């Protein structure tokens, strides 16, 4: 498990560097193609959308400062989560899986006491 975490850290760092290179490439393309190129407009629309959402929620506006880190690290999270879940299918100690065994005897011996309930009527054969 420690080896997996170490490899995940290495892959995340490499992918973060790739995303920084992509960001620099986008900035160079914006400088070369101009502000009205389709890729430039898409970049600015997404950036403005996040900024407007942050300004409409002033209590969370400080989260905008983490936007660059979010841009760099979120793709690696999606990649590593898939890898981690596929390689740890046999490990059931993590996640939301229930580890309790169902006791059939206690389930079958469970009796409902409806004598105090006014909402239920008993039918006789």
Identify low-pLDDT runs: none
What string, H for helix and E for strand, traces the elements in order? Answer: HHHH
Amino-to-carboxy terminus distance: 62 Å
Number of folding domains?
Answer: 1
Let me know the average pLDDT: 75
**How many distinct helices?**
4
Whole-angstrom Rg: 27 Å
Percentage of residues in helical conformation: 55-70%
The SS-based structural class is: mainly alpha
Number of strands: 0
Multimeric state of these chains? single chain
Explain this structure:
The protein is an all-alpha fold and 125 residues long. It has one domain (1-88). Helix content is 62%, strand content 0%. It is built from four helices and no strands. The chain has helices at 2-33, 38-56, 67-87, 104-108. α1 crosses α3. It is extended and about 50 Å long. It starts with a helix and ends in a 17-residue tail after the last helix. The mean pLDDT is 75.
């Amino acid at each position: 498990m420690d080896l997996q975490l170490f490899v995940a850290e290495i892959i995340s760092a490499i992918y973060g560097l790739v995303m920084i290179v992509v960001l620099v490439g986008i900035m160079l393309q914006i400088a070369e193609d101009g502000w009205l190129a389709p890729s430039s407009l898409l970049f600015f629309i997404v950036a403005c959308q996040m900024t407007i959402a942050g300004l409409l929620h002033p209590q969370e506006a400080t989260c905008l400062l983490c936007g660059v880190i979010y841009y760099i690290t979120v793709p690696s999270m999606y990649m590593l989560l898939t890898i981690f879940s596929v390689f740890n299918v046999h490990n059931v100690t993590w996640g939301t899986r229930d580890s309790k065994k169902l006791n059939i005897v206690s389930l079958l011996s469970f009796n409902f006491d409806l004598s105090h309930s006014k909402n239920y009527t008993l039918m006789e054969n």
